[in-house]
Design brief:
Layout: E1 4-6, E2 11-13, E3 16-18, E4 21-25, H1 35-45, E5 49-53, H2 56-59, H3 70-81, E6 85-89, H4 105-111, H5 120-137, E7 148-152, H6 164-176, E8 183-187, H7 191-197, E9 203-208, H8 212-222, E10 229-234, H9 250-262, E11 266-273, E12 284-286, E13 296-298, H10 317-327, E14 348-356, H11 358-365, E15 370-372, E16 386-401, E17 403-405, E18 408-409, E19 411-416, E20 419-425, E21 435-446, E22 462-463, E23 467-469, E24 472-473, E25 477-483, H12 487-490, E26 506-514, E27 520-523, E28 529-534, E29 537-543, E30 550-553, E31 561-569, E32 581-584
Parallel strand pairs: 4-5, 4-11, 5-6, 6-7, 7-8, 8-9, 9-10, 10-11
Antiparallel strand pairs: 1-2, 2-3, 12-13, 14-26, 14-32, 15-25, 16-21, 16-25, 17-23, 18-22, 19-20, 19-21, 23-24, 26-31, 27-30, 27-32, 28-29, 28-31
Length: 585
């Protein structure tokens, strides 16, 4: 047990000054059997603390109930056993390039733009969530023998709003639910962010990637006293589909880290180890400068982040440069690196031997069909991640007119009388060829990830503005959702048949024979866009647009001998390409 407090200029552990050398590692982005390895890698780099967010939507995806909230407690137990302290950032909003910034879509759909304010309906949901979550945090605080030394109030609120009364309500709620360690806020080092996002009597920290002296000078204008801390030192960055892979020079990043420490500050590397957004939980951003109102930029499945410990848990050049810097600020020799998890024994080809159409998959695993005057949003159908089929009838006889999906979010494959007619996006929502009546139109809309940052946070998915034929709305829309969470438990009921002669959308079933189970990556040549499960574990989204070209398969997912593989292809395949294959990392 111990007492961790915030002094006039330092953090104090039982009255003695301590410097926090922390690194971000999200327990939900790392396979549980690999937590201890990744934590040992952080210690070997020279860190004494680990930071994690908590995604509300992962643990409470639909109104019906909770899902393994205890995972956070197990992770914090692993942190304690690894000899590290812990910083917990429970949100409720977390950003983190995570679907919907961590908020359940049924909450943002219900509360709308009143989220992240003092709206009582929203706060009642938060209180219910915190009541369950704090059972995992409160008993594991340092004054009770656990590793937790700091807990965050919201997250970068000054980048979003100015309702400081909301922050006060959250701080009081955390205290009422048993948090006794110091609270803190984190924001960008700008005046409007610090005035909107900080609270009197609560430690304020700043987030940045460079120019530490200027950032801390801004913080000191707002907080003349208290420990200096960069709560997010952005030592890398994340990637978007169709974009470039982002990297940061290791020497330059190490120099920026040294500058932070020379200021006498504590630091949290964001990310120390990024991991992977398994399960289709990757978020999205809006481009377009400060307003973030431009085209959607969905995040890739890998959250490697160009971090010092890469997606596979290996040390990078940045790891070694950071280790050199951090060693100067540790009094004891740094521990050796733990053994790297074993890679896959040898390459293995995936044999695909069954196929089911998207229609058959929807009939088996989909939710209830809804008939409505206008297309219902994903949130109305309780679809967290996945797709929705909209069906509408074009009356006739009538001449060909343009078909437009107004307010499309995010991507749609359109069929007219059973024939594929085009792929539409938010920027190109109109079919190239006009449609005559009578006609039956099927629109399969996929969410590419909900926005996790900026004023468009919380926006709905689906066809949000209606289906237009010329300028006329088509009413009487049938809609049915297909959520990714339905697959592991229900796929055995799907009626698989022979492979299609031409590469078609649908659910492909197969196997892969593994000799020497271990960390691997899965290549999917000839596939366009979709999701993959191995032994029921959702590896996440693949997409041929890149820059990500393979999916990480944690070794604990695989087993010796035969392994089940399901591939949900949402657009088309090239049957002439080689089969998918597992490769050692």
């Amino acid at each position: 047990m111990g007492e961790f407090t915030v002094g006039e200029s330092d953090f104090l552990l039982d009255g003695r000054p301590v410097r926090l050398l922390s690194g971000a590692l999200h327990y939900f982005r790392v396979h549980e059997e690999l937590w201890r390895h990744r934590l040992a890698m952080l210690r070997a780099m020279g860190l004494n603390c680990v930071e994690t967010y908590v995604p509300w939507n992962l643990h409470w995806p639909v109104p019906g109930g909770y899902r393994d909230v205890q995972a956070l407690g197990r992770f914090l137990d692993a942190v304690r056993e690894s000899g590290l302290w812990a910083i917990v950032r429970p949100g409720p909003y977390i950003c983190a390039e995570w679907e919907n910034g961590g908020l359940p879509p049924w909450v943002t759909g219900e509360a709308g733009t009143r989220v992240r304010t003092r709206d009582e309906r929203y706060l009642s949901r938060v209180e219910h969530w915190f009541h369950h979550l704090m059972h995992e945090i409160a008993p594991r605080q340092i004054d009770r023998g656990g590793p937790v030394i700091l807990v965050q109030v919201e997250n970068e609120y000054g980048s979003y709003g100015s309702d400081t009364g909301y922050l006060e309500r959250l701080a009081c709620l955390l205290r009422a639910k048993g948090v006794t360690v110091p609270l803190f806020t984190s924001d960008g080092p700008e005046d409007h962010m610090l005035t909107g996002g900080s609270l009197p009597g609560v430690l304020a920290t700043v987030n940045f990637g460079s120019h530490a002296r200027e950032a801390f000078a801004t913080l000191r204008r707002h907080r003349p006293a208290g420990p200096l801390m960069c709560m997010e030192f952005w030592c890398g960055w994340f990637d978007h589909w169709s974009g470039e892979h982002v990297v940061r020079d290791p020497e330059e990043a190490a120099g920026a880290l040294r500058e932070i420490l020379e200021c006498g500050a504590s630091v949290n590397l964001y990310m120390a180890h990024g991991g992977t957004s398994f399960g289709g939980w990757a978020g999205a951003n809006r481009s377009g400068g400060a307003l973030h109102e431009g085209p959607l930029e969905p995040d890739v499945t890998s959250y490697d982040y160009d971090a010092p410990v890469d997606e596979y848990g290996r040390p990078t050049e940045k790891f070694w440069r950071f280790r050199e810097v951090l060693a100067d600020y540790r009094t004891e020799p740094l521990p050796e690196l733990p053994p790297q998890p074993a890679p896959l024994g040898r390459s293995a080809e995936v044999t695909l031997d069954g196929w089911a159409s998207l229609g058959d998959v929807l009939e088996t695993l989909g939710g209830e069909e809804t008939v409505a005057p206008v297309p219902p949003a994903f949130e109305e159908l309780n679809v967290t991640r996945g797709l929705v089929r909209y069906e509408v009838h074009v009356p006739g006889p009538r001449r060909p007119y343009p078909l437009i999906l107004r307010g499309l979010r995010d991507l749609a494959v359109v069929y007219v009388d059973g024939e594929r007619a085009g792929v539409l996006t938010e920027e190109e929502p109109r079919l190239k060829e006009p449609v005559a009546g009578h006609a039956r139109v099927e629109v399969w809309v996929e969410s590419l990830g909900r926005v996790n940052y900026g004023p468009r946070f919380g926006e709905a998915k689906g066809i949000t503005g209606g289906i237009l034929h010329e300028r006329q709305f088509l009413h009487g829309v049938r809609a049915r959702g297909l959520d990714l969470d339905a697959f592991p438990g229900g796929v055995a009921k799907v009626p698989f048949g022979a492979l299609p002669e031409e590469g078609a959308a649908g659910l492909y079933r197969g196997t892969v024979l593994v000799c020497g189970a271990g960390d691997a990556r899965l290549e999917l040549p000839g596939l366009t866009r979709g999701f993959v499960w191995i032994n029921g574990f959702d590896l996440g989204r693949y997409w041929s647009v890149g820059p990500q070209r393979s999916l990480y398969v944690p070794g604990p997912v695989l087993r010796e001998g035969e392994n089940e593989v399901w591939v949900l292809e949402l657009q088309e395949t090239d049957p002439d390409c080689p089969a998918p294959r597992l490769l050692p990392v």
